[in-house]
Amino acid sequence: MNHRVVITGIGIYSCLGENLEEVSKSLYAGKSGIVFDQVRKDFGFRSALTGMVQEPDLKPFLSRRQRLGMHQPAIYAYMSTKEAMEMARLDIDFLETTETGIIFGNDSTAASVVEAHDKAREKFDTTLIGSGAIFQNMNSTVNMNLSTIFKLKGINFTLSAACASGSHSIGMGYIMIRQGLQERVICGGAQEINIAAMCSFDGLGTFSVNETDPTKASRPFDRDRDGLVPSGGAATVILESYEAAVKRGATILAEVIGYGFSSNGDHISNPSMDGQVRSLNMALKQADIKVGEVDYINAHATSTPVGDSSEAKAIGEVFGGKVPVSSTKSMTGHECWMAGASEVVYSMLMMQQSFIAPNINFENPDDESAKINIIAKTKEQKIDCFLSNSFGFGGTNSTLIIRKV
Amino acid sequence: MNETLVTMELGDIIEETRDFLSEEFEVNRNLILPENSLKDTLDLDSLDYVDLVVLIEENLNIKVTGEDFKDIVTFGDFYKLVQKKLSL
């Protein structure tokens, strides 16, 4: 028997704000979270642009032992998950006595590894790295930390799928619940923003160098885009079976109705329209809806010349040119491992408040983006059903379709 | 060997130790008394002994190992270890 899978909590900690309310305002206002970071320039980055996310002080919330194993990915993920838990009205007493899982998207822990390695090299004694580093260094850091902090008793693993990690984490939670293997799964994505995490990506020359005007640098689908802007933070989406949510009297925010995925099986960094189309069609088939029922598409579009064109073609091929499309990366930059989850949260906020957040900086279309309906200014519109795309290095593609209940 | 520490009295070292232990382990400084249990007062688990080694190196600039803690029960025992390491 297949179970319906619903969303009962969302949380966000990003360069657009440190909670849902702040982020909603930023999305509606079309406010960019991109800044010029002198630290990157001084380090030798080709581009000093980044989404800027502050590190919160967790001392008021967590013990020393709980904090020791946390670096940026886990710290940010704690903040977004705390907010999502509050929204879902889940507390530790309940979680400790029921079976709740966690599948979180994360694909790096670069800064903590560098710090630990530097310390060992300096002291010539690995003990002096300290006891927390190993739990910061492993890619499963978010899962390790959050599952122990929140006393989770269900499925527990990290999902690494490059820039589609957050999206696949929701997809995998959806499958677990749909098949009756779990009643409740905490999903999401986390992304560190430090220079260690981003220096090798910067080295590829794919970042925008429009440093004179940071808020204009990320311009997905625009003719004059010159690359992406890295960003980060964390987003959390709590999934439950419909029955479990009703049983505990939770407020149901929306339902996940489709999860499509594919692998390009081709170039390690170049996108593939064919792979994207297969992911879109799989999600639509599973959702059992017609293309006209999708009211909004939150595009993956990162502001790279090749990537955006490929996605515009894929959307045009499957949906034609009518459905409204925007890339919130125009405001956030590319939140990488977190993006698939954060963009579901952004789209959920739009659905709840009946507006489409703008694809800012979309001033002139190119040949491909001219064929789809890109929303450049905030638009008041009822959204009953949205689709969110995420594509990553290695040719991993993920598509989620979410509908009001 | 830390020259400043060598010239310090044991009493000063004890006060400094109470400072960094209470700050790191977030416990009331007044509970760090020679007769009290190190493990119970600081609520130490097995991982925390690694951090004790780090703290002692950082604050007192002396090398200890996990093995050194084998026979230490009270803060008093711990101060004796520091004394021995500093040859006070």
TrEMBL record, chain A:
<dbReference type="Pfam" id="PF00109">
    <property type="entry name" value="ketoacyl-synt"/>
</dbReference>
<dbReference type="InterPro" id="IPR016039">
    <property type="entry name" value="Thiolase-like"/>
</dbReference>
<dbReference type="InterPro" id="IPR018201">
    <property type="entry name" value="Ketoacyl_synth_AS"/>
</dbReference>
<feature type="domain" description="Ketosynthase family 3 (KS3)">
    <location>
        <begin position="2"/>
        <end position="404"/>
    </location>
</feature>
<dbReference type="InterPro" id="IPR020841">
    <property type="entry name" value="PKS_Beta-ketoAc_synthase_dom"/>
</dbReference>
<dbReference type="GO" id="GO:0006633">
    <property type="term" value="P:fatty acid biosynthetic process"/>
</dbReference>
<dbReference type="Pfam" id="PF02801">
    <property type="entry name" value="Ketoacyl-synt_C"/>
</dbReference>
<dbReference type="GO" id="GO:0005829">
    <property type="term" value="C:cytosol"/>
</dbReference>
<keyword id="KW-0443">Lipid metabolism</keyword>
<keyword id="KW-0275">Fatty acid biosynthesis</keyword>
<dbReference type="GO" id="GO:0004315">
    <property type="term" value="F:3-oxoacyl-[acyl-carrier-protein] synthase activity"/>
</dbReference>
<dbReference type="InterPro" id="IPR020615">
    <property type="entry name" value="Thiolase_acyl_enz_int_AS"/>
</dbReference>
<keyword id="KW-0276">Fatty acid metabolism</keyword>
<protein>
    <recommendedName>
        <fullName>3-oxoacyl-[acyl-carrier-protein] synthase 1</fullName>
        <ecNumber>2.3.1.41</ecNumber>
    </recommendedName>
</protein>
<keyword id="KW-0963">Cytoplasm</keyword>
<keyword id="KW-0444">Lipid biosynthesis</keyword>
<dbReference type="InterPro" id="IPR000794">
    <property type="entry name" value="Beta-ketoacyl_synthase"/>
</dbReference>
<keyword id="KW-0808">Transferase</keyword>
<dbReference type="InterPro" id="IPR014031">
    <property type="entry name" value="Ketoacyl_synth_C"/>
</dbReference>
<keyword id="KW-0012">Acyltransferase</keyword>
<comment type="similarity">
    <text>Belongs to the thiolase-like superfamily. Beta-ketoacyl-ACP synthases family.</text>
</comment>
<dbReference type="InterPro" id="IPR014030">
    <property type="entry name" value="Ketoacyl_synth_N"/>
</dbReference>
Automatic annotation (TrEMBL), chain B:
<keyword id="KW-0596">Phosphopantetheine</keyword>
<keyword id="KW-0963">Cytoplasm</keyword>
<dbReference type="InterPro" id="IPR003231">
    <property type="entry name" value="ACP"/>
</dbReference>
<keyword id="KW-0443">Lipid metabolism</keyword>
<dbReference type="InterPro" id="IPR009081">
    <property type="entry name" value="PP-bd_ACP"/>
</dbReference>
<keyword id="KW-0597">Phosphoprotein</keyword>
<keyword id="KW-0276">Fatty acid metabolism</keyword>
<dbReference type="GO" id="GO:0005737">
    <property type="term" value="C:cytoplasm"/>
</dbReference>
<protein>
    <recommendedName>
        <fullName>Acyl carrier protein</fullName>
    </recommendedName>
</protein>
<keyword id="KW-0444">Lipid biosynthesis</keyword>
<comment type="similarity">
    <text>Belongs to the acyl carrier protein (ACP) family.</text>
</comment>
<keyword id="KW-0275">Fatty acid biosynthesis</keyword>
<comment type="pathway">
    <text>Lipid metabolism; fatty acid biosynthesis.</text>
</comment>
<feature type="domain" description="Carrier">
    <location>
        <begin position="4"/>
        <end position="86"/>
    </location>
</feature>
<comment type="function">
    <text>Carrier of the growing fatty acid chain in fatty acid biosynthesis.</text>
</comment>
<dbReference type="GO" id="GO:0000036">
    <property type="term" value="F:acyl carrier activity"/>
</dbReference>
<dbReference type="InterPro" id="IPR036736">
    <property type="entry name" value="ACP-like_sf"/>
</dbReference>
<dbReference type="Pfam" id="PF00550">
    <property type="entry name" value="PP-binding"/>
</dbReference>
<feature type="modified residue" description="O-(pantetheine 4'-phosphoryl)serine">
    <location>
        <position position="46"/>
    </location>
</feature>
